[in-house]
Design a protein that fits this description.
With 210 residues, the chain is mainly alpha-helical. It is built from eleven helices and three strands. The protein has a domain at 47-187: Orthogonal Bundle (hpI Integrase, Chain A). The longest helix has 23 residues, at 182-204. The relative contact order is 0.12.
Amino acid sequence: MAVRSLYHFLRSGDMAELGGVSAEAPNPTAHISARRPKVQPRCPYTLPELRALLAACEAPEERAFLLFFIGSGCRRSEALGLRRADVDWVRGEVLIRGKGAKERRVAPGRHAMLALGRCSNRSGRLWPLSERQAQRLLARIARRATVVGATFHRFRVTAATGLMARGMALDELQQVLGHSEIRTTAHYAAYNVAQRALAQQARLSLADAL
């Protein structure tokens, strides 16, 4: 994949003018197949971990911050760009501006909306934090909660797997997560499938019947 990317760069117009590979020249990397390793689905937070993280929050803003991620499944950059004007308090919905300037709405749930209402009295950004500051905040909360491996993306995984476990269809989850392709959403469903398979294997184990 690295060689293919390099050759594509060398064939670009600017590089060709500087003595790179001609854009009309045959591409020797065109038929190189790159096999991607199959990795295990990412694990969501457990319910005890989520409760520990929320209990470790020292301010209403911190609790609202985590509840929003748990309920919405948003990306970190999407949440940090939110303003009070993006929140529809009547319908319990939040306008999200995702990748590629695509807009969608999410409904993070009653508890998350109540927490937001208690702390969002400013007219600007809901959380005036940079991505680095947000990461440090989560790290401090995780240390207090003794939760290992806390990341914002795990909140997204947790929201996705939780919604699917409660009956949300894959195309509906695609809309909530803001994916342009449903195959991307299917990666989040892999954890639920794996867990059901393991539960069935344990229940039907031939070794236990001997």
